[in-house]
Request: fold
Amino acid sequence: MQEILFETVQGNAYFSDLFSGYQTVLYCPAIHHPMPDKSETYSVEGDNAELRHYLARLGRSSRCFSRCEKALRKAIKIFVFAFNKRQLYKQRYPKYPTHIIDFAYTPN
Reply:
């Protein structure tokens, strides 16, 4: 697990459950917060599910995957832009149906 952490983008804080394997990993200079429950991780899992739902390249057991990191970053950037625009629209007009594709255009 330590090698995987070294290869990823460094975070400021890490939240996990009480699995003993997480206790042996060095998170320096970040802080590791072991949680007795899922109170701080459920929203991350929800966001991951949204990404897998809307971007086939991130789906599990899929043949649609990005070989180019740049293409993956652009796809995620467009998705986040459209998702955020849709959420703001839904707050403003809760009675109108919204589809994420209606908000997907390339941001400046």
